[in-house]
Amino acid sequence: MKILLAKTAGFCMGVRRAVEIALNAPGKHKEPIYTYGPLIHNPHVLSLLNGKGISVLDHIPEHGTGTVIIRAHGVPPQTKESLEKAGFNVIDATCPRVIKVQNIIHKHAKLGYSSIIIGDQDHPEV
Fold first, then answer.
1. CATH of the domain at 56
2. Which structural domain, as residue segments, surrounds residue 104?
3. Catalytic site residue 81?
4. How far apart are CA 81 and CA 64, in angstroms?
5. Is 121 a member of any domain?
6. Does 8 map to a domain?
7. Which of 34, 46, 63, 64 has the smallest number of CB atoms closer than 10 Å to its CB?
């Protein structure tokens, strides 16, 4: 049996949506355009975005201009608020499925439940 390994594979719905949002941002939104952290973990896509003038913002400055796109796996609410407070137009490209899980956890936390999340605490998705 011959096995062929693809150089690239397809993206999940949430990542595909975030990439489409980013690729459509130039010309539609206030420039410069950034993603807060890498939009996704794919060097080919990051290079494509960079070629379209979209760069990565690694930290939130006190004052900023332009547009920041929130990555597919989202950010804490405080991060989004800090970006807006700094003066950025924020486009939330968080995966709808991630938002759904966040809302479920938030709802249950208000009811007194605890949630256990397993993963690397320093990894943005976690």
1. 3.40.50.11270
2. 13-110
3. no
4. 13
5. no
6. no
7. 63
